[in-house]
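ERR on first pass: missing label on line 2. Operator R.T. fixed the label and resubmitted. Corrected input:
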Amino acid sequence: MIPAWPWLSLLIGFPVAGGLVLLALGSRAPSFARSFALVTSIVAFALSVIVWIGFRDGTASMQFVERIGWIPLLHANYHLGIDGISLPFLVLTTFSTVLVVLAGWRVIEYKQAAYFAAFLLMEGFMNGVFAALDGLLFYFFWEAMLIPMFLIIGVWGGPRRIYASFKFFLYTFLGSVLMLVALIYLGVRTGSYDLLAFQRAPLGLGTQIWLFIAFLLAFAVKVPMWPVHTWLPDAHVEAPTGGSVILAAIMLKMGAYGFLRLSLPIAPDASRYFSGLMVALSLVAIVYIGFVALVQTDMKKLIAYSSIVHMGFVTLGFFALFFMAGASAIEAARMGIQGGIFQMISHGLVAAALFLCVGVLYDRLHSRDIATYGGVARSMPVFGALFVFFAMANVGLPGTSGFVGEFQVILATWVANPWWSLLAALNLVIGAGFTLWLIKRVVFGPIVNEPVAKLPDVTVRERLFLFLLVIPVLLFGLWPAPILDVMRASVAHLVHQALMSKIP
Amino acid sequence: MATLALWILLSPLLAALITALAGSRLGRRCTHVLTIAGVAVSCILSFWILLRVLVGAHLDAPLYTWMVSGGIPFQIGFLIDPLSALLALVVTFVSLAVHIYSIGYMADDPGEIRFFGYISLFTFAMLLLVLANNFLQLFIGWEGVGLVSYLLIGFWFEKPTATAAALKAFVVNRIGDLGFILGIAMVLHYTGSLTYASVFARVPALAGRTVGLGFGWRVPVLTLMGLLLFVGAMGKSAQIPLHVWLPDSMEGPTPISALIHAATMVTAGVYLVARLSPLYIHAPDALGVILVIGSLTAFFMGILGVVATDIKRVIAYSTLSQLGYMMAGLGASAFAAGIFHLVTHAFFKALLFLAAGSVIIAMHHEQDMRKMGGLRKYLPVTYVTFLVGSLALVAFPGFSGYFSKDALIDAVGQSPIPGAAFAYTLLLLSVFVTALYTFRMLFLVFHGPERMGEGIRAHLHESSWVVTLPLVMLAVPALAVGWILFHPLLGGSFFGSSLATPVGINPLASFAHLSPWRFFLAAWDAPSFYLMLAGLGVAAYGYLWRPEWPARLAARIHPLYRLLVQGYYFDAFYLRLGAPGSVRLGRSLWKWGDERAIDGLGVNGTASRIGWLGALVRRFQTGFLYQYAFTMVAALVVLVSWALVRY
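pass 2 clean. output:
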């Protein structure tokens, strides 16, 4: 149907090339730089859409595979390929980058070209993570994407940006160093760095446990899971709006993606061994962090904590399957994983939208403090309506994408343990509490001060990127089937791998 | 018929969408015409469908596949049977009346266009709920009406009390939904489907099965399922102890109180239990709980109406009490009686609210009944229609409420469900209470001395026709609908298989061959009639002949009076313990857990090093990306070479 081009390499290389051009350009033509970035990101998005069109549902095998020698000495290959689990994230990445470019259009004044370059480079690297099928390549992209994000926070961030960027970098970097060790171990043991070979390799429980721990440190930090989550609120608070958007929409998904691509298929027995811990940490994230979110006074921190809650659903959906028994266990396991993946995608959209909303306010009054606002709906009616809409998606209102993942995870978890299901479902109440309380204080109520009274409503550009997010949030809420159809075969294969012992 | 059903849904939705996107450009008039036309089309189609259903039409078909997950297709689809067709007509009819009324009521409001968009959206969501053939769509509609309710309670969003009430309504409803969603999870787990027909087909096989909840605790599957789903119904239909949001919801505009918080949305829980009657008949213990909670709500919430002084709050407490009646009827497994009362209540309660709204307009938005009085000569149409609504509410023989409520009480009396005797007593006492607060309101507002200020009295006049027409539109069914529906609904010929008949004793068996005329004549033999007259008598004594008497009585029994004025301290409990407790918990988790324990102990070592690292790295931080990229790649090369050397 579509020509057999190296589409995945294009998805990685095109934005990276665009980023390099911008870097070379320097600060010579800022307005050209942003137009160039916009065009590049739109083309990258179009490329991902082409990949989606060319993608065949119904098979778990890798598609768009590219494989050439990279480091022959190590048997490491430049090996790319995607399945139904990675595809949606490629599209999400390219889509979010377009939004970020739009969001930074007027706001960024300092080193504009470099700012857009950082996002384009990061886009390429993130696409690389989702497309890599070679362990070293995966690691390369995994670490490479940290650098632009580190810079985005450190250079364009808020007043405490140095502290936040180092906390971010140290946390995530220290976590992933152990992953490299694990990957090298597997590479040496299997004789190549092929992730699919890793997945097939029989491994004893002891080995698997060490591998799982090494992966866990890398992924748990990224997700982030309680108790290694404290870098996230700081990073979000200091990051510029675009940085927060990418952080929430894509970077948090890397950890969960790692569980799917590495932990569960490579170390299924260890995953089972640790599943109790994983479920416990997920539930702590949902309930504990929910209460913490309730008392935040900084809008970005509140949304950051809300992200941790939502990612708790993701990891719960991934690890509850080891506790399922009975006739419907396999189906429920698939539902849990699908729910988790859907939650990742939806959270990518909704959290991005909420950070953009906060950005809209921040650009006007330069405050993220909830107490600065109040009665915004009177001066900014269109913005108020959009903010309430995304808040409702965050609350998981049916008809928005926020509902679908949570719904599936709650339904599936019941099969594992009704009490866990109850704890997870508490988010219906707590999530409504912290999100709508935020709305009550910021959007509704009497106008609190003169600056709020004079707030201009959203501009055409702001409307554009917010409405671009309304569409998928609503569409996938009313009709989630397309995304679930894409991933069904791959998820079934993954559940099969996760439930199959690899102990020789 | 699927197309017809689709258009019932789509016409209000399209009206709402156009209003949302282009309302300000279209202007007021255009929006009125558009939204009213949308609902009118829906109403006419609903009527047409009800006629078709009467001659045996039936539809249970999927519209599209929402998702396939875990091997199970989750579908959006329609179920058109007597129950849903009847409810769809009630919803669209009341909605139509409220739309027309709102032209007058909202005329000077700057948010008028937004208001019309909301009520059309509400009508869509409510119909989505009613016409669903599966739990998923039911839940989507359920949350949809909750959303619009939230938006409309907080419609005047600059009023702090309104936004607080909206938040409270949403969160309390969410507590109910917590139970509801777990109930849905259970349904899916045990029946492998969320479509009503397949679920009901598999329910009998679950009777006798138990589910282990840990610690050796086992409960019957169907009882737990029924109770969890009922928790959802308790939230939406405001049953004790989740009732606290409904009185506060009166912060919304009065037409909304009529449409959402009296006639339609709050009865969704009643509809849910009735819709699931094939499940509940196998779970008598769950029915017993419903029966007891319903009757407690009916009695204790009714009493609060006696001490309230805000006209809308009296009607709100009355709604709580009547919802309790409906629930009790369902709990007694007299499902048809519960639905019958839902239908009559929808008409007369919407009528009462709209009439109260007409009073409020005339009084220049004064809602305190102590400042009204003698209004009947200024507002004749409002008075007559309000009187009709009141007589229906107190179940005066011949009015619609009489047929539904007395039949319901009778059925509870005959029910074998555990707790029925207790519930029967409470429901009978509630008849007295209902009459007392209703006539108290009637006398305080329309009779007796005129207590309003001179400025208001000078301008008192009847509302315009857009307000009085809906009153008459609703007064007619409030009078007549009992006579028409009594036999078909309670005799069993109308609902057919859409409501299950209980296993064993059917509390409605004696209604099978009873004509409305015979039932009307039987009023004089029933204790409820005399309890109602007693309520009327006490109200007349206290509020017409001896107006000083209620205050003296209140002073006499002051602790009890305070208990009632405080609504049994439910709000105080939630607002002093629940909400601040959560905030306190959150704050200590944040300060002690996140900041002290995790960051303090775990990260602090690292954090102190950050200062040092920062100094070191600052030298590298030139701001040029390629240097970083280079450093990163270099590091990777070093690591890889290290690995190479090792092996």
